Amino acid sequence: MPEEKQSIHLRPMIERDLPAAFGLSQQARWPHRLEDWQQAWALGAGVVAVANGETVGTALRWLWGENRATLGLVIVDERYRGQGIARAMVQTLVAPLADYQLHLVATEQGKPLYRQLGFIEQGRLEQHQCRELPAREAEPSPEGVTLRPASPRDLSTLAELDFAACGMRRQPLLETLLSSAGQALVLERRGIVVGFAMRRRFGHGNMIGPVVAPELASAVALIDALCRPCTGQFVRVDTPQANSLGPWLVARGLPRVDTPAIMVRGTPHRPDPGAVQTFALVSQALS
Ligand SMILES: CC(C)(COP(=O)(O)OP(=O)(O)OC[C@H]1O[C@@H](n2cnc3c(N)ncnc32)[C@H](O)[C@@H]1OP(=O)(O)O)[C@@H](O)C(=O)NCCC(=O)NCCS
């Protein structure tokens, strides 16, 4: 309605907006808990759209180093869609980031907007999950590889591996995740840390991610070890399709439930061939 449109304005997101933001993600049937919003907001910055005193839209961005950023949690209240609110929020966030490489994971509904703003699809993400993880025999670890719990002393190594895999400087994110993870593992080869993985509470239960590893067999060893304590529980893994982890996840009892688009504006990061890769994201918003 035109009179509603006139009274809508944007402003920076503040902590008091989080319960309303949580309400919007519930309306969109997204699994985020209030704690997940809290963590995402604390690591980045956002804008909200306000109509007649009510928060009716959210969009957030996270800066990871000098010229990399991710965008996410873009939601508009069903009653206010189709009025340009999402476009205005995202434009507000990206306006100061003209030189940045921007990365996001887009739903089908979000894709047209991001295409308009210059984002290009760079492949698919596979969301795998199950309500009750079945029990399975443990996978044998690849030759010469050992797993051990990650400790805060590993943080800078994890940040370097993460940077090699995704091109983003995300030490503050990894520090937050490491301190709140249910389980975090590093993978060593000849005493050198060459991969890592974490399991934490997110959404409906356990989220496994990030997972950074030199190849598929090592990623499988890490994820299988993190799955073992979760028999009978909700487990989710979001993996880039290009990394071919999907078939193993399905065989492990984690069917694919969605394949949103990975979209990038700017030159995409290309990890060195033979270097570590990201086998599971932190989350779709944080990538
Ligand atoms: C995606 C979403 C945020 C769009 O919000 P919105 O405020 O309605 O979007 P806008 O009005 O700013 O529209 C921007 C563009 O998106 C496209 N778009 C929006 N709604 C559309 C629809 N129902 N069908 C097709 N295209 C649509 C159009 O290209 C539109 O541009 P145009 O008006 O010039 O044609 C909203 O639908 C939503 O909250 N969906 C659920 C959560 C979600 O999927 N978020 C995206 C995460 S990546």
Structural features, described:
By secondary structure, the protein is α+β, with helices and mostly antiparallel strands. The chain has two domains: 2-99, 3-Layer(aba) Sandwich (Aminopeptidase), CATH 3.40.630.30; 128-257 and 271-280, Gcn5-related N-acetyltransferase (GNAT) (Aminopeptidase, 3-Layer(aba) Sandwich). 28% of the residues lie in helices and 34% in strands. The chain contains nine helices and 14 strands. The protein has helices spanning 2-6, 18-27, 34-43, 85-94, 111-116, 155-166, 171-180, 216-227, 246-251, and strands at residues 8-12, 45-51, 54-63, 68-76, 101-106, 120-130, 145-149, 183-189, 192-202, 205-213, 235-240, 256-258, 261-265, 277-280. Strands 1, 2, 3, 4, 5, 6, 7, 8, 9, 10, 11, 12, 13 and 14 form a 14-stranded mixed β-sheet that branches. The radius of gyration is 19 Å and the shape is globular. The two termini are 36 Å apart. The site of coenzyme A has 18 residues, from strand 4, helix 4 and helix 5.
Considering the chains and any ligands shown, give keywords for the structure.
287 residues; alpha+beta; Aminopeptidase; 14-stranded mixed β-sheet; 9 helices; 28% helix; binds coenzyme A
Our Rg estimate from Cα atoms comes to 19 Å
Task: Note the run of SSEs as H and E.
Answer: HEHHEEEHEHEEHHEEEHEHEEE
Number of strands: 14
Number of helices: 9
Q: What hetero molecules are in the model?
A: coenzyme A
Silhouette: globular
Domain count, please report it: 2
CATH superfamily of the largest domain: Gcn5-related N-acetyltransferase (GNAT)
